[in-house]
Amino acid sequence: MTGVVLAATVGALFALGTFLLLRRDLIRVVWGLAIISQAANVYLLAMAGIAPATADSVPILAGHGENVPVTADPLVQALVLTAIVIGFGMTAFALVLSYRVYEEHDTLDVTELGDRE
Amino acid sequence: MTMTTTTAMPVGTESQLVIAPMLIVLAAAVGSLLLGRHPRTRAAVSLAAGAAYAVAVAAIDWYIVLAPDAPGIATYQVGDWPAPFGITLVADGLSAFMLTMVAVLGVASLVFSTRHLPGGEGRSYYFPLFHFLALGVTGAFLTGDLFNLFVWFEVMLMASYVFVAYSGGPQHTRAAFWYVTLNLLASAVFLLGVGGIYATTGTLNMADLAQRLADPAAYGLEPVPVVGLLGLLLSVFAIKAGLVPFQFWIPTAYRAAPPQITALLAGATKKVGIYAIIRLSFTVFAGAEVAVDLQLPVLDAAIAGESPLPFVGTALFLMAAASILVGGIGAVGRDSMEGVFAYSSIGQVGFIAIPVAIAATTIDPTLRQFAIVAALVYALNHTLAKGLLFLAVGTVRAATGTSRFADLGGMAKRSPPLAIAVFVGSLALVGIPPLSGFFGKFLVFDAAARARAGPVIVLLLVGSLLTIAYATRLWNQSFWGAETDAVETATVDSVQVIVLVVLAAAIVTVGVGFDPVYEFAETAAEAALDTEGYVDAVDPTEPSELAPSSGGDH
Hints:
With 117 residues, chain A is mainly alpha-helical. Chain A has one domain (1-50, 71-112): Helix Hairpins. Chain A is 71% helix and 0% strand. Chain B has 554 residues and is mainly α. Chain B has one domain (13-537). Helix content of chain B is 73%, strand content 2%. A two-stranded antiparallel sheet of chain B has the order 1-2. Chain B is globular. Chain A binds chain B through residues 21, 26, 29, 33, 36-37, 39-41, 43-44, 46-49, 59-60, 62-66, 75-76, 79, 82-83, 86-87, 89-90, 93-94, 97-98, 100-101, 104-105, 113, 116-117, and chain B through 82, 84-85, 147, 150-151, 154, 158, 161, 165, 169-171, 173-174, 176-177, 180-181, 184-185, 187-188, 191-192, 194-196, 198-199, 202-203, 543-544, 546, 548-552. Chain B: It is found in: Cell membrane. Chain B: The chain crosses the membrane at residues 17-36, 43-65, 85-112, 124-143, 149-169, 176-199, 226-251, 272-291, 311-333, 340-360, 418-444, 456-475, 495-514. Chain B: One of its GO terms (molecular function) is NADH dehydrogenase (ubiquinone) activity. Chain B: It is a multi-pass membrane protein.
């Protein structure tokens, strides 16, 4: 059941992100990017499996002996943490860039930007 | 049996060499950032770091790959964690070959940059960003881990985003915005591929991955989804390499970035895409036993057996063919120097991808290795020639303030050495002997002929004719004819011209003394195909082999 919910959430996030990415307003495009990168993070987290894991199913836990409690796969969490940080920086950069586009073109509308070539 | 597998591996000089180039550029990036207020010291530190980087890469080339008693491959386990758990850096022939190209072009571009820094307020960040770009490229070539490949891609891209937006101006900002958007989207797709591969195989270490895919039954995994995931990754790498249909960002981004950075974008970061395709397809995924029923009639070579390679080959072939045509035809119609070279870059990367596609579809191991050699030699030629030509655009722009054909003409009279260097670079693109381009093109044609792929040869011929057309047109429009006003008042920077002449000399030297270059490329191709050697060197420990007590060590 959790799996279905998770899959639906990831799918919905991707759909929303794509929808925003195709808007004319640059800020919405940045929002779309941010949502898509979060969707990728949730997906990555889900890829470790959502059932409780033990030393048998998680390779990195096997190296730590018998006394491993039932826990989630720590590897994907480390990966997602890295991905979140990167995605965060990128979103900030995209926002700053759209602000500069606004300063230089006086508009955030994609079609108007295209007309001015 | 405790952690003998790790402690038995000596942390020798070779092992430390692997990480040396990365440490050097990282230190240079931080150092030049701190020296923001001292432009001269900053430039000097950057140049010294560039030289040190070149020395470190040369040491890797010699002590790890080329010396008679060299091991051929060396690894560095960060923090001394054993392989599938820790971060592994691997230097083998293929990485070394790629690093060498970056080192040569990077030093040329650095020397060039000390003469003329583009941009106003952002100037003090130029060198730190340059080093971060180099750090990302170096990390991508050396990493032995799929997720770290993603991280290094991001490091490289972050620097390149800023460079594309660097010069300011409405056009450039807009180009940068689309460039950033496209690449962020690609990063998300990259993560999807990485996550899927982790879910399918339970590992992200490339050596461990290769080992598991070669024997899926022993690890209880189902390798079929790997083909689709490889397809996802392939599209990401194709974006970096600028293969059609992912080429649309190239012309605007290349026009927006400063010329000396465009030289690096075309010469180095593009090659990261090619490198990743070769490394993942041949070293990592080649052994996966998956039946792929996908054949192109034009590639007559027998399709590689049960492996995802035919899929890679077919996809690459289609993209490469389209790239050659789109790039060539696009380049003929441009009205500025960098426009021509940007489109030419799209076409030339097709010439690199064609032999890779041939290597992926053939089952003949000799032809496979030969085709990869052809791709590598062509990539080397493209790095040298296109690097030279983009730097020449910088010189022309710095001297005349323009690079549009309408305002240029008679540059040959104004600065003969500059004209000769550009002439040599253009001839190398066309493929005239005895330049490096001749061997590149010859080997690509030879690989197509050996694969008995007639239509491919026709395609390559068309591409070559288009190259001749735009190279001639560019030469006639900007270097021949009467001097325009802009050219008459131009003062050409002598140091920049010296850099160009040195690069032109390098193109001639590679062409004349081709044997060692060919041998190096051959070693690189061998390394790319030697999955077993790669796995042995990285030596991924099995979880079951780790004794329970070993966990306490950390």
